[in-house]
């Protein structure tokens, strides 16, 4: 397939993907066709300006593929696109920088945090220019999230969800918040025999009682609607002796105080 043919196919994909209501299934089909085209297209090695156009075009296609993977919630697909993009981002730095590059890199950093792959997260940071870590909004966001996690400042992580630099970031932020919720829930089960519904909502960062009840059902907690309390199911009679009780109590009090301030 020629450069012009691949370009036209890309333009069709780009127009659909950036429309107000994109057809993600159609985008997936176009990406599938482009993958086949790219396999044979990559074997073409034109000289000079044509070679640069080829590299820039392939980068744009892969970037849309990465963002499409987020929108259809396909993390393995996103990882594959990222693996390919790294080559174009790092090996062709002499070419004009893609406008989407840092947003894609930031998304990948957030993915690593959501998957608790901290060593890989720090390895990726080493490939980024130091000034971008504090000045680029796409990179600064996951860097600050990682700092909050290390400090145990879960409230700041929750608040950061409302200030994402791009909508695609919400996908990994939701995964991260769910992970935090499950960690707090696990500690709560060991530290308490019961909790008022209102306290559980505050502790687990839920907005209403319905969300708490759904979460309680998923974790097989007993709910007494008359008392408005959750009773944790546990066969461990020594749960009161577990030191996490003090930690959970401090987190709960801190969350209450923050709620009053807001």
From TrEMBL:
GO biological process: proteasome-mediated ubiquitin-dependent protein catabolic process
Keywords: Proteasome
Protein family membership: Belongs to the proteasome subunit S14 family.
Descriptive protein name: PCI domain-containing protein
GO cellular component: cytosol; nucleus; proteasome regulatory particle, lid subcomplex
Coiled-coil ranges per UniProt: none
Domain of life (superkingdom): Eukaryota
PCI domain mapped to chain residues: 76-249
Alphabetized Gene3D superfamilies for the sequence: 1.25.40.990
UniProt key word RNA-binding: no
């Amino acid at each position: 397939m020629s450069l012009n043919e691949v370009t036209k196919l890309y333009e069709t994909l780009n127009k659909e993907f950036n429309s107000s209501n994109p057809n993600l299934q159609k985008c997936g089909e176009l990406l599938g066709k482009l993958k086949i085209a790219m396999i044979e297209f990559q074997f073409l090695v034109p000289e000079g300006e044509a070679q640069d156009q080829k590299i820039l075009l392939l980068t744009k296609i892969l970037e849309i593929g990465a963002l499409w993977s987020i929108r259809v919630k396909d993390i393995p697909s996103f990882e594959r696109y990222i693996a390919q993009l790294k080559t174009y981002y790092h090996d062709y730095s002499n070419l004009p920088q893609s406008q989407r590059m840092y947003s894609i890199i930031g998304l990948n950093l957030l993915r690593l945090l959501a998957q608790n792959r901290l060593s890989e997260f720090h390895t990726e940071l080493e490939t980024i220019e130091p000034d971008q870590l504090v000045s680029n909004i796409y990179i600064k966001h996951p860097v600050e999230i990682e700092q909050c996690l290390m400090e145990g400042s879960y409230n700041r992580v929750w608040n950061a969800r409302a200030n994402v630099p791009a909508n695609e970031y919400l996908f990994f932020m939701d995964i991260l918040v769910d992970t935090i919720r499950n960690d707090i829930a696990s500690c709560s089960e060991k530290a308490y025999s019961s909790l008022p519904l209102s306290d559980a909502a505050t502790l687990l960062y839920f907005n209403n009682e319905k969300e708490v009840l759904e979460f309680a059902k998923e974790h097989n907690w007993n709910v007494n609607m008359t008392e408005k309390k959750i009773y944790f199911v546990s066969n461990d009679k020594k749960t009161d002796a577990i030191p996490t009780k003090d930690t959970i109590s401090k987190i709960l009090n801190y969350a209450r105080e923050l709620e009053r301030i807001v």
